[in-house]
Amino acid sequence: MSSFALLLGALALGYLFANRRWMPADSPAVLNAWVIRIALPALVLVQIPKIPFQPELLFAAAGPWMVALGACVVVPLTGRLLRWDRGRTGAVLLTCGLGNTAFMGLPMIQALFGRDAIGTAVISDQLGSFMMLSTLGVLIAALYSGQQIHARAIARRVVLFPPFIALIAAFVVGALGGWPAWIEYVLDRLAETLTPVALFTVGFQMRFGDVWRLRLPIAAGLTWKLLLAPALVLGVGMALGITGQLRDVTVTQSAMAPMITAGIMAADARLEPPLATAMLAAGIALSFLTVPLWTLML
Questions:
Q1: How much is the pTM?
Q2: Helix (H) / strand (E) containing 164
Q3: How many domains, the chain?
């Protein structure tokens, strides 16, 4: 309960600071840099070496791929049925095909399942959501906005992403027997900043102004992201005989709110920016209800 209170408190403080203008408007850029370049790599470096690799862990990486590829089928069909233009379809596809498995997922997984589940959640985030964002996400933004696609730029983005570099290093360290105690202590302290800073940043960027006006595409998109997508992952897991914490963490990660970075990508590509921003706000708020409900059901 105390861990979940920390999540809600950090989120509420971020929203309060933004509305009261107690911090500069560009503060999320600085906070994001800390999370992406320091806290998340530290978490990866300290948790991954502790996980004995098993083939079943590929299911954790596959969860976000199922969500995104399923969205590539469901969202365009929904868009045709509801007569959406390319901008709206692209915005819903980006935001509801990619989940917030890092900024929200890792803190919520720790609160709901405990610290020993973080390693599985990191694999889901790095080999699943991040890879999807850097490949399929870039492709979707380009296709729906009419931009050109550069394979070299995509590959460079993946290879130079700090948490991905940390992931490769963590696999090497794990194979060599792990970190010395003093290095693990330092990494642990840095990793502990992920939850409050990440959730504060999420709260700081939440905007609800257009939620009611855009309620129909938001409802359609979030029905997939918060309900149908995790149900799909759960069904595949049951069919494959995946059980226990691996199944539960993967399904829960699949049920996370839309990814903030995907929303920013949609806005940058001019894919109906007000919808992308409103989808993030509504999805984050609703996920604090739906994610615990999924956990209880599991």
A1: 0.83
A2: helix 162-175
A3: 1
